[in-house]
# Entry
Amino acid sequence: MNLVIKIKYAFPNSAAIGIKPVSKEGSQRLIRKAIEYAIDNNRKSVTLVHKGNIMKFTEGGFKEWGYEIAKKEFNAKVNDLGFYEIPTSQKIDAINKKIVIKDMITDAFLQEVLLNPKDHDVVATLNLNGDYASDALAAQVGGIGISPGANMSDGASIFEATHGTAPNIAGKNIANPSSLILSAQMMLEYIGWTEASYVISGAFEKTLKENKITSDLASQISGCEALSTSDFATEIIANM
Amino acid sequence: MDSKISVPLDGEKISINSNLKLDVPNNPIIPYICGDGIGSDITPAMQAVVDKAIIKAYGNNKKIAWMEVFAGEKATAIYGEGVYLPDETIDALKSFVVSIKGPLATPVGGGIRSLNVALRQSLDLYVCLRPIRYYQGVPSPVKNPQNVNMVIFRENTEDIYAGIEYAASSDKAKKIIGLLDEFGDKNKIRFP
# Structure
């Protein structure tokens, strides 16, 4: 769809066609959530990831509308280095005085998260980019099968396991429950039960550090004995 | 039809106040979907961990009242053949505000592309939130996985995932190509 080579001959009648709608409202409500999250959780920056160099109006629009809302609703200003910054001084317990708003082309972003992952914090991106980036990053931290997730709106939010149903091991009490447990931990944080959320993350970290884990990860660690699903949960509880 | 959902008597609803913030009681009702496949293995494990963490943090002052709602295979067993996502499940997820779900299989055949997509669309779940960080002890393919600590906000309703796609040589694709011809853009399509 994005080929722009002018050619004299064309046989286009047999092409499959896909349409890519990207709206200002749709982009801004997503980016607003990301900026609010960055402010609420004392994060350092928000990166708008897009392919606007090629898809100028859809992905390029996402970027433009992102900066627009940062300026209009969050009072973003350009600093000495040419970056947009949002002041967080209105927030009492702000650790970072400013949150940087920046953007990056998707392909460069996928290189950067491997080479300089510390440069990126909160990321706001379009549907397809986000699909690629979240799976690639999950793999980078060994997190396929343990990464948590949530789907949210202005009303309902659903926290969810990010992996599949693994029917071949269903009912055997050997599956790794980490993704769902960490999603529940996010959920507790979301409803403001921060202390309970900390109890889970602390106990989870301790359990993994001790190499107490289900077979999917245990099989990758030499000399590590696999725990069942329920024993793994019991071990987390014991570490609280 | 009678409701298949039994609402816990010892819980209260989470609500959204006028500032679009959550009002959370000490005994919130949280709907959960067990999920297909390993869903029935991991869901009880998750609940055990959550319940214990809450006791650890708050003693008996706070407690989740879990409420099972149904989707996927389990829903078809309870509501009847082909009912993978009952209306009352969608209603409950909406009205109880915060919920949690295990994995759902994509039904073979039938009109539903994916239950997850159907849920996203019916509840307008426009944010897909994915925090990515490293946990020590987890095997990783890179040298310094601990340097990754990102939170991805993925737009969840637009882009080419909107599902506006037409097969090669279909009437609709040909019509769109005809429109591109009117715009003078037809020659941008390179291959037959």
In short: The CA atoms of residues 113 and 137 of chain A lie 8 Å apart.
